[in-house]
Specification:
The chain has 276 residues and is an alpha+beta fold. The protein has a single domain, classed as Penicillin V Acylase, Chain A (4-Layer Sandwich), CATH 3.60.60.10. 14% of the residues lie in helices and 34% in strands.
């Protein structure tokens, strides 16, 4: 997943929109209860590694999603998929810090009605922070408020640094969705989401009604996939391979209800359907 938009306001549903960018020929299954070891979790399943990019616990009212990050890659001989991370997060489990050295860099968001945390691994050190109320826009390079503003966002607690797990030095993570694209996307979409009327998604509503003014934004805001600002992207990597946005998810959490909507045809508003 390459972009996540998270809104936290006291007394209101926690809202998460997730945009998954991946090689378009990487096989996956739509959201379901795919993991016998996690019978209470629902999410899309990556058929190459078996994990997921976003998982929801309907019983615990919790969601976990992972984004690629920038940093030192894990050793090729021991590298493991990051797809287990959202499952662990949604199930309420802790990160296995002893296994971090075998994971490429990531940002892991865990949200529940009481709030959210972000855990970031750069290949050498893990940071963790609780996100304050407000709108948070996360890309591969981290929190947009820090990238666009040139420093930590106002009121954001300093990261809590865990003991670093050892990692072999390596090249920076490849970034087909590079820094220039991230900054252009942030410049367009961050204020658009901030100024949009905040949705109040409830079970039983049609998807477009449930997400209101967020719905056209998550569907790309009319921007084509080759535009530098694009939220829904597509890139020709050569050799017959493409990289782009393969699915979109939106989740709303309260103490009493959960709303989870999904599409595997990004940019087609008619293709959305409710999972929960």
């Amino acid at each position: 997943m390459c972009t996540a938009v998270l809104s936290i306001e006291p007394g209101l549903p926690v809202l998460l929109a997730g945009v998954r960018d991946e090689l378009t020929d990487r096989a996956w299954e739509p959201p379901g209860r795919h993991w016998p070891q996690y019978p209470g979790l629902i999410g899309g399943r990556d058929l190459q590694a078996g994990g997921t990019w976003l998982a929801v616990s309907d019983q615990d009212r919790r969601v976990g999603c992972v984004l690629n990050a920038i940093g030192a890659m894990a050793p090729a001989a021991t590298r493991r998929s990051r797809g287990s991370l959202p499952l662990t997060a949604a199930a309420g489990g802790p990160l296995d810090q002893d296994a971090l050295a075998d994971l490429d860099p990531f940002h892991l968001l865990t949200a529940e009605p009481a709030g959210a945390i972000i855990q970031s691994w750069d290949g050498r050190a893990l940071t963790e922070r609780t996100l304050p109320p407000g709108l948070h826009f996360v890309v591969n390079s981290g929190l947009a408020s820090e990238l666009a503003g040139g420093g930590p966002s106002a009121g954001l607690p300093a990261p809590q640094r865990a003991e670093p797990a050892p990692a072999e030095p390596g090249p920076a993570a490849p970034a087909p969705n590079g820094r220039e694209h991230e900054l252009a996307r942030i410049a367009h979409f961050l204020e658009r989401f901030r100024s949009a009327a905040r949705p109040d998604p409830r079970p039983g509503q049609p998807v477009a009604d449930a997400w209101g003014s967020w719905f056209p934004l998550v569907n790309g805001d009319g921007i084509g996939p080759d535009d530098l600002r694009a939220l829904i992207v597509r890139r020709d990597l050569g050799g017959g391979r493409t990289w782009g946005t393969t699915s979109l998810s939106m989740v709303g959490l309260t103490q009493d209800a959960i709303r989870y909507d999904f599409t595997g045809r990004p940019g087609d508003p008619s293709s959305w359907y409710p999972v929960l």
